Amino acid sequence: MSVVYDCSRQDTRSDGLTAAAGAVRSSRLVVLPTDTVYGIGADAFDQGAVQSLLRAKNRGPDMPVGVLVGSWSTVDGLVLGVPPQARALIEAFWPGDLSLVLPHAPSLNWNLGTTRGTVMLRMPLHPVALELLRDIGPLAVSSANISGRPAPATAEDAREQLGNSVAVYLDGGPTGEAVPSSIVDLTGSEPVLLREGAVSAEAVTEVLGTPVATPG
């Protein structure tokens, strides 16, 4: 049976964060608010929990799961290296609505789907998400919806779709307009904007000092 915690109150927020951390450490799933939409999360290094996340969303490994982090420094332990372009984008937009795709460190024991040796990383601008991430470390997170249905802007919307497949719901109130993060791929010879979301192509170009390519 899943439990919903009202994170607008300090007492229930503290209880909720404790329960969510315990659920993640027990290979269960949680729903948490972010600065874009509500996300469903699992321990990024627990392959069974990530598989449970994909099953809850009715999604296959061909659509890999991204990873949320609670600090800039966490990135250094997850990737082969952080190029200057990535550093510039992190400093400009993190925490915030920009996801970066980088080659992941080959020593990591995780399976986020068919990533072809890469990982998509983001540091969200939401106090509840950041507090949880700083407690338990990187989370594999995807939007908290059944694949093909709208991404939820409230915990109630997420629970209506995911039900008891999730152990703990952290209700941080409405997220506002459900705009996804922008995604920049830095694995090739030039940066590629895979998805233009909350951060515009013009804003990315301004930081990088060079036009960002788009697929196609």
What does this molecule look like?
The chain has 6 helices and 10 strands, in the order βαββαβαββαβαβββα. The chain has 216 residues and is α/β, with parallel strands linked by helices. A 10-stranded mixed sheet has the order 1-8-2-3-7-4-6-5-9-10, sandwiched between helices. The protein is globular and about 50 Å long.
Q: Which helices and strands, and how do they pair?
A:
Layout: E1 3-6, H1 10-25, E2 30-32, E3 39-43, H2 47-57, E4 66-68, H3 84-93, E5 98-103, E6 118-122, H4 127-136, E7 139-143, H5 155-162, E8 168-171, E9 182-185, E10 192-195, H6 201-208
Parallel strand pairs: 1-8, 2-8, 4-6, 5-9
Antiparallel strand pairs: 2-3, 3-7, 4-7, 5-6, 9-10
Helix pairs in contact: 1-4
Pfam family, one: Sua5_yciO_yrdC
Keywords: ATP-binding, Cytoplasm, Nucleotide-binding, Nucleotidyltransferase, Transferase, tRNA processing
GO cellular component, one term: cytoplasm
Which tags fit this structure?
216 residues, alpha/beta, DHBP synthase, 6 helices, 20% strand
* Helicity level: 25-40%
Strand order of the largest sheet: 1-8-2-3-7-4-6-5-9-10
The number of helical elements comes to 6
Structural class: alpha/beta
Q: Name the CATH superfamily assignment.
A: DHBP synthase
Whole-number average pLDDT?
Answer: 93
**What kind of sheet is the major sheet?**
10 strands, mixed
The tally of beta strands, per DSSP, is 10
Order of helices and strands: EHEEHEHEEHEHEEEH
Strand % is 15-25%
Which regions have little confidence, pLDDT < 50, spanning 5+ residues? Answer: none
- Indicate the CATH topology: DHBP synthase
Tally of domains? 1
Gap between N and C termini: 45 Å
